[in-house]
Structure formats: structure tokens, C-alpha cells
Amino acid sequence: MTKKFRKSKSFQRAADAPNLPNTPFRFICYFVNQFRWWYVAMVLLEAIHATCGIMLPYAIGEIVRSVTRSPDNSKHIFDVVSQPLMLFTALSVGEVVFGRSAGLLQTILHPIHRQHIVRSLYAYLQHHSHRYLSSSFAGALAHRIGETSLGVTQTMQMLITEFLSVIVMYIVSAILLYRAYPPLAAFVGVWAVLFISISFWLATRCRIHSQKAAAARSETTGIIVDTVTNLISTRLFARLGFERRYLNEQLRRELKEVRKSNWYSERIRWFQFISAAILKIGILYYSLSLWSQGKIATADFVVATSLSLLIISEARNLSRRFLELFEHIGNIINGVSIIVQPHELIDRDKAIAHPIAQGKIEFRQVYFSYSAGKKVFENLSVAIQPGQRVGLVGFSGSGKSTFVNLILRLFDPQSGQILIDGFDIQDMKQDALHAQIGLIPQDPSLFHRTLIENIRYGRIDATDEEAIEAARKAYAHDFIVQIQENYHSLVGERGVKLSGGQRQRIAIARVILKDAPILILDEATSSLDSITEKAIQDTLDSAMNGKTVIVVAHRLSTIAHLDRILVFDQGRIVEDGTHSKLLALGGAYYRLWKMQAGGFLPVEANNNEEEFRSQKKEVRINLGT
């Protein structure tokens, strides 16, 4: 999917989405630039902190120099070393003050910076299409948002507190060694350049493994979230062992990628430890040789050996730093490549918040397919008049759900127009369109919030009394007041604490409260018992007054009283009329009516009459009728 989007003509974004760059380097710079003065201050403080730290061997060398030059009188030793001692003290204090000041800025900034990145990525993700979201693990997307935001702050932390200090250390070391003996500085300088260059090159070779390991971890997180969400189904199908094996298989794939990354990292560490040891031995022998020849003083020998030990200590950690850096960058690359993709459906430049006054819906010569070779509608034209209540029937895959999805603009047709009150919905802001359409899906999803918050989602500014009244109309009030915390009870993730019928009633209450001019019901009462369904059907009939209503149903008895019924078959509307008129025709709708088993249509048409009677008998047995 990513490669397909990258090859699009232009990188289009929703107008309300953050203008996030789609390459990792520009992505990091985009967010760093928003806090640039904080980072400038951190860089200055960290540079001074690193300079103080690396100057300590120089101060020790000056102390040694003063001691070796002074007369042998221990009583006045502090007078002799007072100036280098003050320098040592000032450097030690400076190392603490500047280092902790940089740390304080980092402690304040990074949580704020990370939250800012999370907000921006989430705002960008909100504008992705239904196709994108339905093709991705929700848990994996959430994990990538967290990993990407953390990757940016950790990358900046490492660049400033780790790599900047190493660069400062090498520069100051070279200057100090140059003062002592220029060839010694050249020896350390050449080694440092070669060492850093080779380490960086090796780390870039490791990056692909780090990226694959990060992607595998995100996939594992997505699977865990998915299985936890469906844990009830897992238990009821007695598939606990199967899901453990399924997860184990993913963990094996993850372990394979992680091991590749770790083994490559270990080989890099071997190179860097050996290189550090060579430097340690080389500087020690070279310094001793220079000292024995009288080319450097004792103090310079102390400075050289002290600096070599510091350099070695930093160099041995450089491998870990490079690998961690590329792991963080790998997380950023994964997040940017997955989330910062072109938005498939965006508002046009001059889109407006067009008010729906009447609710007339019209399809004009609509062509639509989900993908190449999967055509659904071809030259579909139909009009639904304002205030008309229309039922959609047909076998699964006939085009009913696609018809509704196009009205909701979850997808755009390849050609043709869909108009509401004569206004093309592609010229309407999506928020305005969705705000004026009420949808009751077959399987409603609730937030893990309180019941009253879920009901009030239909109209955020509604009072408690209005929300409770909507719950009464949806026949949800009685079961809500029986719960310990009634309207303030949490419903669990996706409403898992409620039964299917209870979730459906909350969804109906939410739409009643929304009171939109267009109402779409997708098997809205399929999860309810017959008595509750009859009561709610009366409420829905009342709620339909003055609205344009579209009802998708498999139970044909629930739509027989509507003004009009559209019969779909393989993407075409084959019949159009009232219930009685269509029965009188004796055509497709009549056959569907006769084919109902237990009040429902079979999954697909069957021309073999004997097989149909067998299917109908089996369905009746399953329903206990």
C-alpha cells in the first residue's frame, strides 16, 4: 500500500491535517524547528558541559606541572598549585552546573515535545480513509504513533547529550594534544576520523535490520491488541491454545528479525572494542616513547594518557550509541512511512459546509469499483425524494452496503455524481456531511467511556436530561438504571460490558439525540429480541418523521411498511416500488419474500429448488422454529 501511494501524482493532504513531511529527516527537522530555541540552549549548555569534562585532564596536567617545577617544600604545595587547582575546581563545578542545566531543559522539553508529536500524528491519522483504516491493525497504528514520537525525542537527546559530547571531546583532545606534541594530536585525530567513519558506515548497514525488528515488534503489538479485543470470541470458540500458538508464530518471526539485528550489532561492537584497545595501547607506547626521549614533559604525558583513557571510554560506547540512534531512526522511518501517506479522500479547495434542508439523495451515472476487476456499480442512477423512507434489499454482495458507503463518502466513485439537495457531496466538507447524517450500524462500536458520554456523542452539547430522554426513547433507560453506577458506568472497550442488544440501544439513543435530517439504518434492530424490536421500531418510526431514511435489511418484514423498496442484484437496482407493488409484480422481490427463512434472506441465491428447501429447513432448525 505504501509504494502505491508514493507513486501517486501528488502528495495530497486534508486541509485540516498537519503539514507533516513524509521523509524521516524532514519530519525530525519539522518538529525540532518548533522548539528550536530550547534545543539551541541545550546544545550550548551540553557543549560547555562536555568541554569542562574533557578539560579536567588538562587541569590535572597543570597541577602535575606546577608540582614538578616547585621546590621540594610540601608546606607550600597549595600555594604552588593554587591556580591549576582553582581551574580544576571551576571545571568540576561547571561540569555539574552546565550538565544538569542541560538535563533540566531536557526533562522539561521532551515530554511536551513528545505529546506535540503524538497530537500531530493522531490528527493526521484521523483524516485517513475507511479503506486505509480497515486495512491496518489499530494496535499497530497506535504503537507506531508512540514509537515515532519517542523516536524523535530520543534521537535529539542522543545527538545532543551523546554525539555532541563525543565531537567536543575529540576536538578539545586534539587541541590539548597538539599543544603537547603535534604528531600525537595527528595520531589521535586520524584514528578518531577513521573510527567514527567506519562505525557510522557499519551502523547504516545495521539500520535495515533495526527497521525490520521495529516493524516486527509493531506487528506483534497489533496482534496482541487484536486478540485481547476478541478474547471473548476466543474463549467461546475454545481457541485459547490456537491464539497462543498464533502469537508464538509471530513472536518467532519477531525473534528472527531481532536476532539478525542483535548479531550484526555485536559484530560492530567487536570492531569498536578492538579499535579502542589499539588506541589505548598505541597512545600509551607512543607517549612513553616521547617522554623517554624528552620530547614531552611529565605533565604532557599525564594529559596524553588521561585523554586516551577518556577517548577509549567514549569510543567503546559509540557503537551502542550509533545502534540505538539508528534504532530510533528506524522507528521514525516506520511511523512516517505508514502514517504520513497521502490522504485518499480530502475536501476540495472550495468545499463548503452545505446545510441539508430537504434530504433529497440522487445518484447520477455512478461508476464504482473497490479495485481493478471488482466492479460494483456501472452507470447507476436513482433518486430518493425528501422525507422518503426507502428499504434496500438483496443478497450479500449485491451493492446495498456500497450504496450506503458512497452516501457517507467513505469512498468516492470513479465517475458520476452523488448529490444531496442537488449539491455534489464532493463539494461539501466531510464534517458537514457526516454531521447531518445519522447512522445506526449493525454492530455499533462504543467508546470505553461512561454510558451518558456515549449517548451524548450524538450531540456533545446536549444536557443530561436530553441524553436520558433519548435513552428512554431507545428503551435503554431501564437496563441503565439497574447498573450500579447507571449512566456513569464505563462500558468497556468497544462496549464489551454490554450485550449486543444493549449496545444497539445505546447506538439508537445516540442517533435519536443527533436528530440528523438523513437517517441510515443498517440492520439496526437485528440484535434485539422481538418484543424490544417492536417497541423500538415504533420509536424509530417516530424518529423517521420528516427525515429521509434508508434502511438496509435482511429481515424483509422490517421494511415492508416503508414508502419504497429498492431491490439490488449484482450492483444493479432490478426492482423499485412499494412492498405490495413489488409482490404483485411476482419478480425478484417476490422470490426474495418467498425465500425468507426464519424472517431472514439466505446468504446467496440458489437456483436449485431442492437445495433451497434444504437450506431453509436447516436455518429453521438452527433458529429453533
TrEMBL record:
Residue ranges constituting the ABC transmembrane type-1 domain according to the UniProt record: 40-327
Assigned keywords, A-Z: ATP-binding, Membrane, Nucleotide-binding, Transmembrane, Transmembrane helix, Transport
Membrane topology classification: Multi-pass membrane protein
Region forming the signal peptide: none
Residues annotated as domain ABC transporter: 361-595
InterPro entries hit by this protein: AAA+_ATPase (IPR003593), ABC1_TM_dom (IPR011527), ABC1_TM_sf (IPR036640), ABC_transporter-like_ATP-bd (IPR003439), ABC_transporter-like_CS (IPR017871), P-loop_NTPase (IPR027417), Type_1_exporter (IPR039421)
GO molecular function: ABC-type oligopeptide transporter activity; ATP binding; ATP hydrolysis activity
A GO cellular component annotation in the UniProt record: plasma membrane
Subcellular location(s) of the protein: Cell membrane
Highest rank taxon of the organism: Bacteria
One Pfam family here: ABC_tran
TM helices/strands, residue ranges: 37-60, 80-98, 159-178, 184-203, 270-288
SMART domains noted in UniProt: AAA (SM00382)
Protein name, as recorded: ABC transporter ATP-binding protein
